[in-house]
Each structure stands twice: as structure tokens, then as C-alpha cells.
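User: C-alpha cells for Cytidylate kinase, please.
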Amino acid sequence: MIITIGGLAGSGTTTTTEVLSKKLDIPFISAGNIFRDMAKSKEMSLLEFSKFAENNAAIDIELDKRQAKIAKESENLIIEGRLSAHFVDADLRVWLLAPLNIRAERVRDREFKSMEIAIEEITIRENSESLRYLDIHNIDIHDFDIYDLVINTNRFNPDNIAEIILTTLKVI
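Assistant: Done. Predicted C-alpha cells:
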């Protein structure tokens, strides 16, 4: 079984993926971690690397290829990434969302930033990613038609979200 979980920064994708991975006892990969590693290898911050990637389609294309290849070679896997559902043949495609202020609070808490900085960085990053995804792949990140399940994580903790996903898996 292949599951993709996508969402914008602070929507809960990483934590939900980790919880679901444990509950299903299957591995996961994170496109965000791959992207962060690529930024570190270039000695850039995440924001700097996002801006750099705007003018370098090869970065996003490489990320997409890596995810698709890993998924094809796997029997059971959860792939966490904003565009994973578009490039991976998955049994279930999930999108997590939450209001900007909630996502900013989560980013603020995990990265020890002020709320203002968290909102500013999220907004810059999302604008950058939206432009790249549209330009490189003709994908509108705000179009949820490809997803089987869309969950607003505002009122649910990661265990609850994982249970919603598990319940969905029982009926598909």
C-alpha cells in the first residue's frame, strides 16, 4: 500500500506521517527532508534555497523523480510531500490543511521564532513554491481534486488524524 500525505508548512504532514507510519508499521520518506538536505548541501537556508529553486527547475524535478522511483520500488510506503500525490501512483492521496495562524503557531513553536517571522517566512515560502509548481509542472497547489481525502488539522491532533486516515483505508 502506497499513501501520499501532502500539505503546506505547519499543516501537520510530518507528525501525522510519523504517527501513521508507526500505526501501520510501514516506512515513510519525506520530500521536505530531502529538500532541506539539498539546501544544507548548498549551504543555504530553506528560504534561500526555495528562492534558488525558483530559477532551477532541476531541483524540483530531481525531488519528484526520487519520490516516484522510491515508491515504485516499495510495496508499502508513506510518502510525505507537497506534490507527492502528483508523481506517485498511490492507493490513497491525503492533503492536510489548516488556517495560516494555526500553521504559523506550529512553525513558531518548533523553530523558536516569533509569530510575525513565522507568518512572513511561511508566506514567502508558499508564494515561491506556488510559482515554481505552476511554472515547472503546471500544478496549482490549491487545487485539491487529485486527493482522496482532505483534512483540516486545526481541531485534530496527529493521533486523531491518523485514525481518520486508517478509517478511510478500511473503506477503500
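User: Anything notable?

Assistant: The mean pLDDT is 93.
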